[in-house]
Amino acid sequence: MAPAGEPRWRDDELVMISALEHWSYCPRQCGLIHLESTYDENLFTLRGQRLHRNVDLPGDAQEEGVRRVRALPLFCDALGLTGRADLVEFPEGIPYPVEYKSGSRRPHSHEALQLCAQALCLEEMFGQAVPAGAIYFHGSRKRVAVAFDAALREQVPESVAAVREMLAPLGSGS
Questions:
Q1: Which of 8, 26, 133, 150 has its CA 20 to 30 A from that of 114?
Q2: pTM of the complete model
Q3: Which is higher by pLDDT, 172 or 161?
């Protein structure tokens, strides 16, 4: 445990929230992206980049009576997580993360894992429960709600530990 006032995690121990989705989808893909810096462009990645060009523009606006913050930096000191939320809405003051995806399908467990990790960050940052969020599929223009149940919440720290172990420098003893 780090002394009070000092970071709990070294920079090289922090896990990017996006790495959780990569790891859940395919541990090898996660290693290629986050260890080898290998990332092949294809039609799907280009669509995702185009979508996120607009989503990733920071902003804080009041729309239809709901505060909406885009590109909100996230952290969770307890887990050593860092990243950025595409969008966080605050209906009635409760954080509600929304993850944008370029496809048009229903959410899979790896996307829900990433979204739940964002919720855990928001809970630590704002000191209140975040029971649900949503995945917005740009291709179908559909928003699918995701409840953060106990099983999904337990999967986040397990996945963070697995990613951290995979990304640990050789010989670090991790």
A1: 8
A2: 0.84
A3: 161
